[in-house]
Amino acid sequence: MLTIPGEAVADFVPPSEEEIRAGSQAFADWFLAQRDQPEWRWEALLCSDPESDDPDVLMGRIADAEGLLTQLEALQAEAMARLRELRLDEQERVHGGRPTPGAVDEDGWVASEVGFTLGLSEAAVRRRMDYAAGLSRHAGARGLVKRGDLPSWTAHKLVEHLDELATLVSPQRLAALEEATVAWLSERRRTVAALNARMRRLILRARADAGLSNDDTAGRAHADRQVGISSTGDGCATLWACLPEVDALAVAAALDAAVPRVADDPHDPRTRAQRRADALVARLTGAPSLYGLASDVPAGGEADPVRTRIEVTVPLATLTGQSAAAGEVPGYGPIPASTVRDLAADPQASVSGLMYEAATGHLLGLAPQMQVRIPGVLWAGEVTAATGYGHTAAQERTLRARDVRCRAPGCRRPARRCDCDHVEPWPTGPTTVDNGCCLCRFHHRLKTHAPRWSVTASGDADLVWRSPTGRTVTTQAHDYRDPADDPPPF
Fold this sequence. Notes:
This protein has helices at about 5-10, 15-35, 40-45, 55-95, 110-120, 120-135, 140-145, 150-165, 170-185, 190-210, 215-225, 245-260, 270-285, 315-320, 335-345, 395-405, 440-450, and strands at about 225-230, 235-240, 325-330, 335, 355, 365, 380, 420, 435-440, 455, 465, 470-475. By secondary structure, the chain is mainly α. β3 (about 325-330) and β4 form a beta hairpin.
């Protein structure tokens, strides 16, 4: 039970009912006034026909509702932040400068108050309050949120990443990085995964520029390596591992090598994800998993070492120690320069070169050896056309290097796990690099079979996706430039 000193109570005067009603009316007037502001998504959402069966109208409502949700969440977060200020002032008046231990809260007990009212955990409320504080610190992110131009979760991650960057760079540098990121987000819709990958690169570069190499925290982080298990409550359990990145990537690559994309047995009903799980059990225990097959167990019933292959894209200067620019593992994301050098130190590692255009970051050509000489480069535009349906090995290698990921909007599936498809279907469209793209099996089927979807090529390897409601999204070839180089250094 909380005990309030009597002398403090005498100084606190609670608001009257008239003051409360006046404040409520003022807020209601303000809120109604916001509906007339052009940046709010009220009119388009509320004036559309809620019972319409027109897919275009429904898609518009979905988009406007998402923007409005972002705006309303920010409004709620700001209200929580303001409530916190009021509660802290109130707490100061009640308890003064020397409060009874345990009688005060750094958030004025707002997390408990709001959580009780909304049926949320205090941790969930504090996350929303932290989000409001982050928006107040980052004007560019706040502008996107105020206009409802970001999905809610994307906005949360943007603020989180900017807060981390703020601890590593100067205010001027932070402002430049934020401005560049806001411009990048404004170009077209980006997924959270794409944002995370970009910001991870920026943070790694900032750490390197600040003299904080990955090795500085490796000892502490590697000391935390562990394997844990927790029940999901439905007859399954989650087995998780916290490993050094090099080890985690090796394990993932070993599972990829042990489980081909297509099952050898056409009667095997398991998905690839299920087969990966069963292969992990079989190789660790020497026996089939509960729902696995005997063929999952290596010959002899013992763990069978699998030769792995990890693909990493990294600037040459990073390998030679002249740069701290991050590398990138397709499907995983950026990794620190020190991790790249650890991987490259493997005596069995093989290195090949690629060249990209400085202005766009798009692939120009590939070379089989690290010592790239211009005459030895296989330029992407010179890869010969195939005479039939199937792509040649050179075409597949070029397409996977050019696209890096599935070319469907928002998909992050690595190109090495995708099909090499024809943009314009064969035989009308030729089997060439210009008419090719990497698509995961799901989006390959969507492009081929989904009614009223279309994909067309539009110069410089751009793909224009058109949905049944007529909305278009353009995806581009992979940009090999480091986003940390976009804003000028300070």
